[in-house]
Amino acid sequence: MGSYHPTGLALRCRLFILFPMLMYGDHQFPGKLFIVEGIDGSGKSTQLSLLQQWLKREGYMVFFSEWNSSPLVKETTSRGKRKQMLTPTTFSLLHATDLADRIERHIIPPLKAGAIVLADRYIYTAFARDTVRGVSPRWVRELYNTAVKPTIAFYFRVPLDVSLKRILSARAGLKYYEAGMDLGLSDDIEESFKVFQGMIREKYEEMVDEFSLKVIDATRSIEEQQNEVRAIVERELRDVPKRPITNYDFRED
Amino acid sequence: MCPNARSPITISARTEPSLENRSNNHQFEFYGEGLPDVDLQELCGRLIVIEGPDGVGRSTQVAMLKPWLESNGHAVLDTGMTRSALAGKGIKRAKAGITLGPISLSLFYATDFADRIENEMIPALRAGFIVLTDRYIYSLIARAIVRGLDPRWIKSVYGLALKPDAVFYMRTNVTELIPRVLTSPTGFDYWESGMDIHLGDDLFDSFVQYQTRMLSVFDSMIEEYGFGVIDATQPIEVIYRNLQRRIGRLLRENF
Q: With a threshold of 0.90, does the pTM exceed it?
């Protein structure tokens, strides 16, 4: 916490318990956070749910955190989407609000209890999507500066034509924002989606080094990918408890 | 490029400003990274902010200043916080049920602010309006800081905001605020008393603690953001004349 504003010790402690303002990389919890990223159709969700099944079978406490799950923000997001009143900036801020809520509510408490938290998409989705929409890369990174740094961030790398084939055959209809129609890339929704996905893929590629994303070759079989993911995760589980931690002495300063 | 302001504002007992004194190279800047797709050269209006704590009388002054500016030939957009079409409703509900933590609530406020600046203020500035806003980012920054968030973080979030042409900070003290709260129909408000951060045992204790902290954060921003300080312990009429004088000067020199 910054010492910008003179607050009494009592308040400091109280606020600290209520809410620790920690920055990316500062968080120290007994639990682990594994997240998956990749363009639509990369198979990341399948891999994550297979990982979840395995961790459960191994007896770990597993908590699955979904993207866009806060009811209140969801309502605002849906209103904005329905009326197409979202700008790149408000779109970005709404997702940041949602993720902050998710972190405060669903990620930090299980991590403190020593659980393994799994998240389908995380801050990198926002970095990729928002910067494609023209939001400043620096600003959007600042916005998410309070997020917990994942133990491992997997990036499922797949060529665009492979993912498009998977997604466009399976999907009934594309939605306006999902297809990036707000960017005016094309009047044809499918064409817009293709161009948009390609742009997002480029952003992911640029982030691999910046955030040390663990690249998984998502053109291989589901089983091969899952074996690799499990091997990587297993190395991080040495100190992970199988029963809740209740007396964890949480970062004193 | 902006056209020159042709219809001069006339303020009683003042001489007509000469055209030479008018600056043609007024240009807005952002505090930080700014907003995408905004051409700052297109923003021909002026942005004037009235800031200050809860209950200091900001909206009273805005309500008086607007018709005055309009009678002088300026088109005015008056706007306030937590009223955006996008997030206003959600924020009201969030506050009613206290369902968001401090970081997410701060970001929700920022969403609301971004919606208002992009969809109300910037279009009005583009059209050459004077935007007169009751509160701006400073209240939002102060609330976040008082709730223990990192000042650098919240300031970088508001790097999307335009630097106003003037910020008038209506400065007062807690002792002055209390009678105003008591005469308001709602009395002590949960949020204006900072009850979410448990500073005192009841609304009154908490109000005093919370507003004291808010005032000290506002004071710490005076220099950093170049606030024009208005002594808000004075009568409404005196404050109004003070604001008129300062806004009048600003528009003469800079329009």
A: no
Side chain identity at residue B49, one-letter code: V
List all residues of chain A from 85 to 104 with a beta carbon under 8 Å from chain B.
Answer: 85-90, 93-94, 96-98, 100-101, 103-104
Q: Is there a contact between A97 and B99 if contact means CB atoms under 8 Å apart?
A: no
Burial B166-197 (b: 16+ CB within 10 A, else e): bbbbbbbebeebbeebeeeeeebbeebbbbbb
Q: Quote the minimal CA–CA distance from B106 to chain A in Å.
A: 8
- CB contact A5 to B (< 8 Å): yes
CB proximity B199 to A under 8 Å: yes
pLDDT tens-digit map of A147-205: 999 999 999 999 999 988 888 876 667 888 888 888 889 999 889 999 999 999 999 99
Contact A118, A8 (CB under 8 A): no
| One-letter identity of residue B217 | V
Give the contacts of B212 (CB within 8 A, at least 6 positions apart).
B174
Q: Would you place residue A26 in the very low, low, confident or very high pLDDT band (cuts 50, 70, 90)?
A: confident
Q: Is the pLDDT of residue B144 over 50?
A: yes
Q: Which two tokens stand for residue A233?
A: 């995760």
- Nearest chain B residue (CA) to A72: B90
pLDDT in tens, B152-192: 999 999 999 999 999 999 999 999 888 887 877 777 777 77
Confidence band (pLDDT; 50, 70, 90) for B16? very low
Q: What is the pLDDT of residue A235?
A: 95
CB contact under 8 A, B118 and A5: no
Chain A residues with CB under 8 Å of B200 CB are none
Quote ipTM for the complex.
0.75
Q: Do A87 and B115 touch (CB under 8 A)?
A: yes
Q: Does B108 touch chain A (CB under 8 A)?
A: yes
Tell me the pLDDT of chain B averaged across its residues: 86
Residues A69 and A102: beta-carbon distance below 8 Å: yes
**Could you please report the per-residue DSSP string of A195-226?**
HHHHHHHHHHHHHHHHTT-EEEETTS-HHHHH
Nearest-Å Rg of the Cα atoms of chain A is 19
CB contacts < 8 A, A to B, total: 136
Residue A89 with chain B: CB contacts under 8 Å: 35-36, 114, 118, 160
pLDDT of residue A139: 96
Q: Chain A contact for B38, CB < 8 A?
A: no
